[in-house]
Design goal:
Layout: E1 4-8, H1 13-24, E2 29-33, H2 45-50, E3 59-62, E4 65-68, H3 70-81, H4 88-119, H5 126-146, H6 160-165, H7 173-176, H8 180-183, H9 185-195, H10 203-206
Parallel strand pairs: 1-2
Antiparallel strand pairs: 1-3, 3-4
Helix pairs in contact: 1-3, 4-5
């Protein structure tokens, strides 16, 4: 058995953060497929009782530890490996600030928008989608401005803040409904820098469950 196991599925940007981190640090890991779409597995009593009471992915298993919430998983892996780890209090606080911004705003709007637009049956209400799209445009503008004149979110090297923020940004434009890289040049350059890191893989190549049946 691999040292780490990750409960995940290919369409989950939240899970991709952790899968990407595992791959970039060269960890011995294996994915455990969670059938979100056909079976609604994370919402089942069995999953909540045995895997994650919150009914979510990702869940990172390492020995006797079973960790949920991607930010917790990234922090744990950074501390254990010494890689992508913010150094010193100022960097730690700045990385945490951007990871919270990601979870509340970037992922917080982009994840539901993509799901309602691309995967929900029936699709989301156009008014709701328009609201989310407006919020996404705003937060991507903030992120693009942050990356003006700098290579990474915190300091001069990639940290877990970067790996958190890229979570949904590599998914295809036809899923997202707009082309982030085409409209935000600083984000586009940053995504290419992360993509060039040894061990980088696209979410659909890194986690099981793509393509979905019937798509």
């Amino acid at each position: 058995m691999a040292e780490y196991q990750l409960y995940c599925f290919a369409q989950s940007g939240n899970a991709y953060r952790v899968a990407l981190m595992l791959n970039l640090i060269g960890a011995d890991w294996q994915p455990i497929y969670v059938d979100f779409f056909a079976k609604g597995e994370p919402r089942t009593p069995e999953y909540r009782a045995n895997v994650n009471e919150m009914g979510e992915v990702p869940v990172l298993v390492h020995g006797s530890k079973k960790l949920s919430q991607s930010g917790v998983c990234l922090t744990y892996l950074a501390k254990r490996s010494g890689k992508f780890k913010p150094e010193g209090e100022d960097e730690e606080l700045e990385a945490l600030r951007w990871m919270i911004f990601d979870n509340q705003k970037v992922n917080g709007f982009l994840g539901p928008y993509r799901f309602l637009r691309c995967f929900a049956k029936p699709a989301g209400d156009p008014t709701v989608l328009a609201f989310l799209k407006g919020r996404i445009d705003n937060v991507l503008g903030i992120l693009d401005k942050r990356l003006a004149g700098r290579s990474y979110i915190v300091g001069d090297r990639p940290t877990i803040a970067d790996l958190s923020l890229v979570a949904y940004l590599y998914y295809p434009p036809d899923e997202l409904g707009f082309d982030i890289a085409a409209t935000h040049k600083n984000i586009a350059a940053w995504l290419e820098r992360i993509k060039a890191l040894p061990g980088w893989k696209h979410p659909y190549d890194l986690m099981p469950g793509h393509p979905l049946p019937g798509r």
